[in-house]
Structures are given as C-alpha cells and as structure tokens.
Amino acid sequence: RHEVVTRDGYILTVFRIPGSRGATDFSAARPPVLLAHGISLSSTCWVVNEARESLGFVLADQGYDVWMMNTRGNTYAKGHKRLTDSESEFWAFSADQMALVDLP
C-alpha cells in the first residue's frame, strides 16, 4: 500500500502486488505494469475474482510487478491535504481532473 499526493492535494492509494503468490524473494527485477480502473470503480476490480480470473494476480503470477491505482473520490482515495470528503469542494472535480491529474 502506497500513497500518492496529487498536485491539487488529493491523496490516492496505490496497491502493489510485487510478485506471484507464495513468493518470498522480491529482489529480482520485474517489468512494472500499472492497472487503472474505469470510472466509478476502484483498484479492487483487478483482484475481485478468484486469483486465476483476476488480472492483477494473473499478471503477478506471470512475473510482473503489478501496481493498481485509484483515482480521486473512490473508497481508496478519499483523502486530501486540506479538505474532507464531507465538504462539497472535495467533490468539485470531473473526469478531466481524474485523467489529467491522477494518472501518471
């Protein structure tokens, strides 16, 4: 679990699967892959099914270093440097900000 702060103050959680299930040595270099969910979803969409049917786990089992991001406003991205999610200003964003600011 990692946190990223956007330039406009939103705190986004990024989850990582560094290797295959049961692995204990994560020192080997693995190609990174970033999974970005669709609108009104969260990173859980990549791991919600059984492991053999969840893209996050399938990629990790195939040797990738899997990173699953979350965009502002979902369950894993309701933090902000100065706002709370009960303030209307927190929710004053559009899909444009999600694409232009939240994505790397």
From TrEMBL:
Q: Which residues form the Partial AB-hydrolase lipase domain?
A: 2-49
One GO BP on record is: lipid metabolic process
Q: Which named protein is this? A: Partial AB-hydrolase lipase domain-containing protein
Q: Which SUPFAM superfamilies match?
A: alpha/beta-Hydrolases
Q: Which domain of life is it from?
A: Eukaryota
Transmembrane region(s): none
Cross-referenced InterPro entries: AB_hydrolase_fold, AB_hydrolase_lipase
Q: Name one Pfam family in it.
A: Abhydro_lipase
